[in-house]
Each structure stands twice: as structure tokens, then as C-alpha cells.
Amino acid sequence: MVEAAKSGATPIEGDGKRILLLLGSPKPGGFCHALAEAYAQGARSRGHVVHSIKLGEMNFDPVLRGGYEQSQNLEPDVLEAQRQIHWAQHLVFIYPIWWGGLPALLQGFFDRVLQPGFAFRYRAAESREFEPLLGGRSADLLVSHDQTHWHYRLRQGAPAHRQMSRCILAPCGIGLRHLEEFSPVRGSSEEQRQGWLRRAEQLGTLV
User: How high is the mean pLDDT of the chain?
Assistant: First the structure.
């Protein structure tokens, strides 16, 4: 479930960051996996330590069945994901956009992992205001989809981007460093995809 990316580079003493890649596609392969590998390669070349979580390989119930008012046992993979997020200084979410939004498995991951007391807490018993508990961390979003940029952003309003930045990362105290779209994937040429992979690798060097 959680992997430490193998490094052929010599870590730079004192400079390397702890990076956690979270692959939000449930598919066992595909372009998102290639983006994750390219990003990790770029990050390792700068001496960063890279771990990864592939949501499709996790064993957990993605349905928050009773809301946060009722207790739901946290599976070992959920607890390990929380440990890895605590360990990380920089988070990288790599996922496709389906039906304009996040894949259901990724949404379920957030519902189950970003628990009150771990990612945030309410400021008072009846308060609707969050106190973030994961501050000091940064994040990159690498997102693939089949729409043109203008269509997704202007015609559809980019709902997944707004949800991630404003409704998930910000309330937990995680600062968004970079959001990169790779689209449209459907119908793209091999040359385009290779260019996108080079861009993902470059982003890994800029942490």
C-alpha cells in the first residue's frame, strides 16, 4: 500500500524533503501512474525522500457510513495513511477528473482519513469554524482529464480544483503550491504525453 520510492541518487544532506505521493486513480495503470513515476524521479534527483500511496491498492471502506458523529473503526491502511501524511512535508495528489469531479475512491479517502482530531478540529462544540491541524505542509496537484482547459475552467467552473484547494487542503492547513492540468488526454499524441511527463518530472525538481 505504501511504498518508499527507490532512489539511485545520493540524498543531499539536510536539503531533502519528505514527499508523499498519493495516487488517486483506482485503475492499476494508466497515465496518472506515469505522471507519479515521473514526478518521483524528478524529486529523487534533488535528494528528496519519496513515499507513495496507491489508493487502488488500499484495503478500506471508502464510505463514511455514520458521518463524524458516529465512530467508525479505522482500518490499518487508513491509520498508515495518516502516519504517512504526518511524516510528509510535501504532498502530491495525482488523479483524473471524472464527471467534472474527484474519483469516488479519492473522495472516500478524504472522508475516512482526514478525520476530526487528525486533520482539523472544530473551534467550539457548536462552531462551524475549523482549526487546521496539518499546517506547515505544502501540496502539488497533478490532474488529468479529457476536456480542454478553457472548457473545464470557464464552462464547467473547475469544481474539482475549487474543492481540493478551498474545501480540503485549506481547512486542514495545507498550502497549495502548484496545480498542473494535463489535458485533454483522450486523443493526445505520444509526443504530447512525453512532454507532459517531462513537465511532471520538472515539477518534482522544484519542491
Answer: 91
